[in-house]
Design goal:
It comes from Rhodopirellula baltica (strain DSM 10527 / NCIMB 13988 / SH1). The chain is an alpha/beta fold. The protein has helices at about 10-15, 25-30, 30-35, 135-140, 175-185, 190-215, 220-250, 270-285, 310-315, 320-350, 405-415; strands at about 55-60, 95-100, 150-155, 290-295, 350, 355, 360-365, 380-385, 395, 400-405. Strands 1, 2, 3, 4, 7, 8, 9 and 10 form an 8-stranded mixed β-sheet that branches. It has a two-stranded antiparallel ribbon with strand order 5-6.
Amino acid sequence: MLIPSQPMSRRRLLRSAGGAALALPFLEAMGPSLGRRVLGNDQSVDAERAPKRFVAICASLGFHGDHLFPESTGRDYAITPYLEQVQRHRDDFSLFSGLSHPEQNGNNGHASELTWLTAARRPGLAGFRNSISLDQLIAREIGLKTRFPFLALTTGGQSLSWTSSGVEIPAQHSPAKLFTAMFVDGKPHEVEADLDRLRRGRSVLDTVGLRAQSLKRELGIRDQQKLDEYLHSIRDLESRLQQSEGWVRRPKPVVDEEPVSDINDKALAIERQRLMYRIIALALQTDSTRTVTFQLAGLNSVPQIPGVQSDWHGLSHHGKDPEKIAELKRIEAAEWGAFGEFLDQLKSIEEHNRSLLDHTAVMFGSNLGNASAHDWRNLPILLAGGGYRHGKYVAHDAANNTPLCNLYVDLAQRMGLEIDAFGSSTSAGIKGLESTT
C-alpha cells in the first residue's frame, strides 16, 4: 500500500484530476442538468407496443395512518378520508402497509428520506454512504431510449435520485424550465451552443479520466477503489453525452399546451404539486422520459389551505392532539386530491388502445410511517397502474415488516431489468402484487 507523505486534500485531488474548477461531485451529477437541455420525443418507439414507465412520488412529511389505512383488508375495504380523494380510481391502485427498509435510524428524524429509493442503512450516520436509487438503476438500463434518461423532480427539497457512487442527483424544482427544455426548440445558434457544450464536456471527461488514472499511484487501496468508482461514473456519463448529441438536432414534440409559469409562493404548496404533476404527465405522454422521481417537500411554515393556520411540519408532530390532527388532515387530504388529479390525467390519455396509466407504474407513499414519531416502519405505499391487478388493501406484518425492496425488484423487472435482488430485498415481489400479464 502506498501512503502519501502528507494528507491529500480534496482540493489537491481535484487539481490533479484536471483543475480545481472540476469538482468531482459536479462531474458525477452533470447528467440531469445536461438532460434538462435536451428533452424531447423518442421517434424509435415500437408502434406496436407502448413503452413501460415508472414514477415514484414521496411525501416527505408522511400521512396520518388513521385517515389512510382501512380497518379491513382485501377488496371490500371501507373507504377512508384520504382514499376518498382517489376513490374513482379504486380499481386502478393497490394500497400496502407493513413495508419498510431495515435500519433506517439515522442522524435525524427525516434522514430516511435519503434512502427511500436506495434502502442504504443508517442514513447520515458516521460511515454512511448511499447506494444507487431504483430509478437510476432503471435509467441505466433504458434511459438512452429517450431524450431525457430520467427526471429527478421536487417541489423544493431533497432529491430522491442517487448515482451508483452514492452521489445525490440535483432535482429540478422549476416546472417552467422543465417545460421549456422538453417542448421549446432552441434557435439555431442555441442548438450549436448546446452541441459545443456537449463536445467540450466529453473532452473534459477524457482529460479527467486520464489524469485520475495517473493519480492512483499516490493512493491507498480504499482510495483507489473510490477512484475506480468515479472513473466508472465518467464512462457512464460519456455514453450519455454521446447519446445526447444525437437528440440535440431533433425537433422537440409539439404539445397543445402554453408554456407555464412557476408558482414562487411556497405557501401555495398544493398548487405547486399540481403544476409539476401536469408537466410529468406531458413528459410521459410525449415519451420524453420513462423514469420519474418526484419529492413532495413539506413546509416549516403555514400552507395556504382553507382551515389551516399552523406550521405544516409542526402539525406532522401532532402528538395525538385532535386539533392538530384535524388541521393536518386538511393538508394531507389536499395532497391526495392533487395526486388523484394526476391519476385522472394519466387515465384520460389513450395509448395503444389503453390508458397511459395502464402503461405507467406509479408508486405514491412516504419514507415515514408515523411522522409524529419519526418512525420509518410500516410505510404507506400505494401502487397505481402499471399492468397490475388492483382494487385491494394488503396489510403485511406490522411487527416484522416485509422489505420494501421486494416490491422494488418486481418494479425493476417490469421495466425490463434482469435482476433478482435490490438493496435489502429477500425475494422478488410482495404478497398482494399480481401482474395482469
